[in-house]
Fold:
Amino acid sequence: MVKEIESTGVPVVHMCTVAPISLTVGANRIVPTVAIPYPLGNPSLSKEEEKSLRRKLVKKALHALTVPVEGQTVFDQE
Structure:
């Protein structure tokens, strides 16, 4: 689906827990997330720490939308 949306000129970020699967389906902008049961969170963190983690992931995805890419690019967690 990401390839189809991008073919219309709309950039897409695929946030995923298993980046090789995103590469297989042809996503161009890939942001790795936390874990399969909680891709955008971690219930073992405090409420404040989890909010910070989520904010960091969303900011990374928003940044990925602004970056011109030539083919598939994985925006690694830092």
Observations:
- The radius of gyration is 13 Å.
- The chain has one domain: 2-74.
- The chain is about 40% helix and 15% strand.
- Helices lie at 2-6, 19-25, 47-66.
